[in-house]
Specification:
This protein is an alpha+beta fold. It has a single domain, classed as Tgt2/MlaC (Nuclear Transport Factor 2, Chain: A). The chain is 51% helix and 15% strand. The chain contains 12 helices and 6 strands. The protein has a 5-stranded antiparallel sheet.
């Protein structure tokens, strides 16, 4: 399926993750997959295969323990870590979101921001996975030139009022295989939305202040409205649709 970024949102989009821990978790979880599957899940799988496989595993496990996740939504996080995080390029996404501020940041700031930003994404989007079933998700085939290092996978979610949400995953080829770095929901890129919001906050308050706010669980207000996270989450749960820009009216 294509929930890989709910991770964000994906994703998309967990706790204080350091870069070396992200890589370690990805490799450790790969060992739980049969060798043949692990091989194809990295360098041999196509972008569409990766989104389909990761989403299918996530939703199948969630469906089999639906009551557990509904009673305790925090349990969604380990599930995302297990199946989706290995296919999400956390550092590249963080670099794109911070833009010029990434170059000026020291290593400690970069590490803290990556962890806090991933936490923020999962908090924003993760609970939207509750109640989703595999029959509501569709991954469109993607043809990728063998020499290409970037690809877009188009997916679609049918929500409870028969409305449809277009979710497109931007991916890039890495030594570990294809990985997601951006998700566009009904045409709104979370990278672009967060970058604009964070740039304004950093200019006003500084990078450390932004990181602290994220670590404390504060939502970036403008990106949250413009990016449609709350609207999408509501639509996944069956709330009335107002497209992805419900927050624009606020």
């Amino acid at each position: 399926m294509r929930i890989t970024t709910l991770l964000v949102a994906s994703t998309w989009m967990t706790g204080a993750l350091y870069a070396h821990l992200v890589r370690a978790q990805g490799s450790a979880r790969a060992t739980t997959i049969p060798a043949a599957t692990a091989a194809t899940s990295t360098t041999q799988q196509t972008p569409s295969d990766i989104i389909q496989s990761a989403g299918q595993r996530t939703l199948n496990e969630m469906q089999s323990n639906q009551d557990v996740y509904r009673k305790d939504p925090s349990k969604v996080r380990p599930l995302v870590d297990k199946y989706l995080l290995p296919h999400f390029d956390t550092e590249y996404a963080a670099r794109l979101v911070l833009g010029r501020h990434w170059r000026a940041a020291n290593q400690e700031q970069r590490t803290r921001f990556k962890a806090a930003f991933y936490d923020s994404l999962l908090t924003t989007y993760g609970s939207g996975l509750l109640g989703l079933t595999s029959d509501r998700l569709k991954v469109f085939p993607t043809t990728v030139d063998p020499t290409a290092d970037h690809a877009t996978v188009r997916t679609e979610i049918t929500v409870y009022n028969a409305d449809r949400i277009a979710m497109n995953y931007s991916m890039r080829k890495t030594p570990e295989g294809w990985k997601v770095y951006d998700v566009s929901i009904d045409g709104v890129s979370y990278i672009k939305s967060y970058r604009e919001d964070f740039d304004e906050q950093i200019q006003q308050l500084g990078l450390d202040s932004l990181i602290t706010h994220l670590e404390e669980g504060q939502k970036p207000a403008r990106a949250f409205r413009r990016g449609g996270a709350e609207a999408v989450k509501g639509r996944l749960r069956g709330a009335p649709s107002c497209h992805v820009r419900c927050g624009d009216a606020q």
